[in-house]
Write a structure and sequence with these properties.
- The protein has six helices and nine strands, in the order αββββαββαβαβαβα.
- The protein has 287 residues and is α/β, with parallel strands linked by helices.
- It has one domain (14-281): Nucleoside phosphorylase domain (Rossmann fold, 3-Layer(aba) Sandwich).
- Strands 5-8-7-6-9 form a five-stranded mixed barrel.
- Helix 1 (14-28) packs across helix 2, helix 2 packs across helix 5 and helix 3 (175-184) packs across helix 6 (256-281).
- The radius of gyration is 18 Å and the shape is globular.
- The protein binds 8-iodo-guanine.
């Protein structure tokens, strides 16, 4: 088997690359992370509610992370202590729709878990398929339907010392962590997250199909990171901010600006939720 010529060498050895990332990360931190929090669109502005950064650096400084694109800026790694626990915040993520490989999409999560995080919180913004869900609402991901056609475990076998790539995904979004979240905020709904590649939104017919398959939410992230985290033995909590009704659920067409505005309006609530929830998740990994 030969890798495609234009593939970066890193993509061939994703676990070794994540190990290098973790070694570099640990040199920068005063303590290994216990919890890793990935802040997706809509959630980034809520990061400051967790407290003041102890250490912060551009993700691109660490091995295996992508250089920032010319247009946008790259992601940031921030470490801080929350309620006596060491927390690593990943501000920004990589998506398949950017033309990135599954290994690139999950690299930050792999790095965080190999560095020590036993709990991974994956946040995202999503469209509501279930009409009972409202924009501005936060939904606990109970399970996902991975319709990306991709897996972070495709390719060469994980090296010695890693679990089999034929990983069990029963209770992927650990019921224990969902219970902790519900105890912090009993108003949180639960739903099934359908992950698609995007970047286009769905047609109304696709949304109708997703609804009949049991999906409540639809988005373009999270599923591959959850799989990679579970493969490495971490517990996963998924939090979706509903920013729009999926196509056809509402008679209005989707407007990206409105999606962003709904995210901004929710920032104070997201901040409060993260600040109360994250310290309670540390040390609560039953795996
Ligand atoms: I925010 O309606 C957000 N992300 N696929 N569909 C998909 N992704 C989304 C949507 C949506 N809203």
């Amino acid at each position: 088997m030969f890798p495609a010529v234009d593939q970066p060498a890193d993509a061939i050895e994703p676990f070794a690359t994540a190990e290098r990332g973790a070694r570099d990360l640990l040199r920068r931190l005063s303590a290994p992370p216990e919890v890793a929090v990935v802040l997706g669109s809509g959630w980034r502005q809520a990061a400051d509610a967790l407290g003041e950064a102890e250490t912060e650096c551009p993700m691109a400084e660490l091995p295996g992370f992508l250089a920032p694109t010319v247009a946008g800026h790259g992601g940031t790694l921030r470490s801080l202590r929350v309620g006596g626990h060491s927390v690593l915040v990943l501000l920004g993520r990589t998506h398949l729709y950017e033309g990135r490989s599954p290994a690139e999409v999950v690299h930050a999560v792999r790095t965080a878990v190999i560095a020590g995080a036993s709990v991974v919180v994956l946040t995202n913004a999503a469209g509501a398929i279930n009409p009972a869900l409202n924009p501005g609402e936060v939904v606990l991901v109970r399970d996902h339907i991975n319709l990306t056609g991709a897996s972070p475990l495709t390719g060469t076998e994980p090296p010695a010392g890693y679990r089999s790539r034929f990983v069990d995904l029963t209770d992927l979004y650990t019921s224990h962590l969902r219970q902790v979240a519900t105890s912090v905020d009993p108003s949180l709904a639960e739903g099934v997250y359908a992950a698609l590649r995007g970047p286009h939104y769905e047609t109304p017919a696709e949304v109708a199909m997703l609804r009949s398959t049991g999906a409540d939410l639809v988005g373009m992230s999270t599923a591959l990171e959850a799989i990679a985290a579970r493969h490495l033995g971490a517990s996963v909590l998924g939090l979706s901010l509903v920013t729009n009704l999926a196509a056809g659920v509402s008679p209005e067409p989707l407007d990206h600006a409105e999606v962003l505005a709904a995210g901004t309006a929710a920032v104070p609530r997201l901040g409060r939720l993260l600040a109360t929830l994250v310290p309670r998740l540390a040390g609560s990994s039953p795996l």
